[in-house]
Amino acid sequence: MSLNVDRASTAFTFKGGMLPMTVMELTSADPERIREQLAGKLSQSPAFFQHTPVVLSVEKLDEPHLALERICAVCRAHKLLPVAVRGGSDPVKQSAWALGLGWFPPQEIKPRNLESVATPAPEAAADNEPVPASGGRIHRGTVRSGQQLTAPDGDLVVIGAVNAGAEVLAAGNVHVYGALRGRALAGIHGDAQAGIFCRELHAELLSVAGNYKRLEDIDPRLLGSAVQVRLSDDQLAIASLA
Amino acid sequence: MAKIIVVTSGKGGVGKTTSAAAIATGLALRGNKTVVIDFDVGLRNLDLIMGCERRVVYDLVNVIQGEAGLNQALIRDKRVDNLHILPASQTRDKDALTNEGVEKVLDSLSEDFDYILCDSPAGIERGAQLAMYFADEAVVVTNPEVSSVRDSDRILGLLASKTRRAERSQDPIKEHLLITRYNPARVDHGDMLNLEDIREILAINLIGLIPESEAVLRASNQGIPVTHDANSDAGQAYTDTVSRLLGEEVPLRFHEYQKKSLLSRVFGGGRR
Ligand SMILES: Nc1ncnc2c1ncn2[C@@H]1O[C@H](COP(=O)(O)OP(=O)(O)OP(=O)(O)O)[C@@H](O)[C@H]1O
Ligand SMILES: [Mg+2]
Prior knowledge:
The structure holds two protein chains of two kinds.
Chain A: E1 22-25, H1 31-44, E2 52-57, H2 68-77, E3 80-86, H3 90-98, E4 102-104, E5 137-140, E6 148-151, E7 156-159, E8 167-170, E9 174-180, E10 183-186, E11 196-201, E12 205-208, E13 211-214, E14 227-232, E15 235-240
Parallel strand pairs in A: 1-2, 2-3, 3-4, 5-7, 6-8, 7-9, 8-10, 9-11, 10-12
Antiparallel strand pairs in A: 11-14, 12-13, 14-15
Helix pairs in contact in A: 1-2
Chain B: E1 3-8, H1 16-29, E2 34-38, H2 46-49, H3 60-64, H4 70-73, E3 75-76, E4 83-86, H5 99-112, E5 115-119, H6 126-133, E6 137-142, H7 146-159, H8 164-167, E7 174-182, H9 184-188, H10 195-202, E8 205-211, H11 214-222, H12 233-245, H13 262-267
Parallel strand pairs in B: 1-5, 1-6, 2-4, 2-5, 6-7, 7-8
Antiparallel strand pairs in B: 3-4
Helix pairs in contact in B: 1-12
The structure holds adenosine-5'-triphosphate and magnesium ion.
Adenosine-5'-triphosphate binds near residues 12, 16 and 213 of chain B.
């Protein structure tokens, strides 16, 4: 027997990795209330729920015992796959393990670094170069009604228009160098820092990290202009880029 | 090798059959051997507009199912030498059309003809997808209204993904926008989308603009494609369209709203 383990004979290798992951921050431990809210979100943006892995964060809950099994079942019924729990008491950790879920220690608390949307930095435009983060995707041409374009790991750049009835989604930012007439969803795995940028706003729906606005909710004065869309205090803020 | 052109729209009643008949007639009048196929199984219409409904014996479905030869089913046009019609079945089920069957028919027609026009049924289902599947070019017929533009957009998405050229990663289908039933006065009033808005949304090459015209109604009632009505606005607009399909540059007409002058009213000129 040789001690040299060559590549062909290894069954696996361990690699460090940073995967984008949606964190579901629970503010209620009541499975019924979670179910109601999920059902509402699911009907609004079904594309968000495609067996998406989620980490259940219970840091904000102050309950030593959780109906974790029922909460997981509710999630799965809405096509979210809980893969781990973050935070919580020792019994919560034990029941996560018992359910075959991972457990992460609570996150250090950092102040949220949200850039002010109302007064974008003057050099903001320079950041809008069509160079996506790695894992991003560039699409040239019109995205047409009935088409769906996804960048599951990064930014999505569309050089062209997104027409009514089309849907563009990205884990990161969505840039549309043209008219945005369809639906745009940024931060689909929960990245609250993600944004949507477009040359001409007529969007049917805008969503960042699951917070959305419909065309009807958009200030009509912004329609037709170049805008950026950001999340600010869990609210979508739409600001002119001009 | 024939060029296969599908005339399609998504939305119904926008003028596909009218356009397929008029363009086929125009191509044949310019000396191209042309056949126009009705893919609208169950709702056949093309033979009426071409004025050959009394001469239909066999149809596309008969040919596909081996009940008739292609030459038995092809109808020779009464007015233009180079023009043939392959009618659809009025009685058969839509499912009678198969991909392989259609391919065979198109392959054998390809040997004899310069142009094959496929008049698509409305919708985005199987029938419409079959009509477009083998196409080299597409004429996307659009009316100046939001729903028609939306459906055309949807069809353009399918042309880029659900066709043989797309599946084989060949050169994409050449897409042409044909705006029909354009009424400059109503566009001017804001009742209808204007030309520029439609072009901007669909972002494809404009091959023609056909005004809303009584000549079309007259033509379809008489079973004479409107291209033959050389004095009419619609007839001229289709002739222009055919010239552009053949690669010529022709300025756009009939898109501007002109209040009729007294002279043109007296002499009956202008639009008819
Ligand atoms: N330019 C025009 N001006 C006036 N009427 C028109 C014009 N073009 C088409 N029409 C009328 O519109 C109606 C529908 O036309 P047509 O049958 O060609 O449409 P289609 O798209 O083939 O319909 P379907 O989807 O049912 O197959 C007919 O009554 C036709 O006469
Ligand atoms: Mg028709």
